[in-house]
Amino acid sequence: MVGYAIGVQALGYLLGRALGYYPISLHLPGTLYGLAGTLPPSEVILWAGYNFIAYAFLPYVFFRSRGYSNEQLNLKSSNFWADVRLIAIVLVIESAVELAVNHRILSLSGHQLLLGIPAAFVIYFVGTSLPVMVFIYAILLPRYLRLTGSVATTVILGGVTYTLLHCFDGWLSFSNPSAAVLSVIFLFFQYFGPGMIKTFLTVRTGNAWVHVWAYHAIAPHTLADTPLIVKVFRL
Asked: Cα separations (Å) of 1 from 54, 99, 141, 199?
């Protein structure tokens, strides 16, 4: 599965470049940092579709066809109300932090919010939330835990995997050795911690959906990236 991920990343890089776009990674260009220009809607659609098919649809269908249940894939709650309480607590805290750090969404008009919020939610849910949940936290994470027998090691490996699957994000530069080293350093600064939090939430609950609702689909993505989607689709 790690080899499959490397192949998907390489193909996403080549496909994006061949079409004149940014390399396809798990974050849409402009998600964290601004871009010099504006993305065309076609690039956003390609990004979301490629990630969904490569990281979510195909792996899920493959493992289900081999007899794995949703419970074995960390996709079914064993304690629904406990998961809901945890989601609510983490979501409130993360939303408050997100809005304190980045409150561009509050500058949008009512019309833009009405159209932009659902559009951003759907695009990022399909393009990164589901791919991350299925590939990393439903498929790889149980294998990390089984192979290592250690929750701590599994949390670290989950953080590393989440980080490396963003290695072609649009803000990174590998044009020269110094830029590459700096990019890798900031890549880990940006993603290693959140990846470990998502891993811990999944290991703690046995339910990969928890991190999606608590710390991915709504906060930070919908809160932070609605302005980008409004700009791309001229809403």
From this structure: 12, 36, 11, 17
In this prediction the pTM is: 0.93
CA–CA distances in Å: residue 225 to residues 146, 166, 183: 36, 17, 22
Residue 34 pLDDT > 80, yes or no?
A: no
Compute the average pLDDT of residues 179-188.
93
Distance CA 193, CA 209 (A): 19
Write out pLDDT tens, residues 197-234: 999 999 999 999 999 999 999 999 999 999 999 999 99
Rounded to whole angstroms, the Cα distance separating 120 from 101 reads: 19
> Residue 161, class by beta-carbon neighbours within 10 Å (0-12 exposed, 13-18 middle, 19+ buried)?
buried
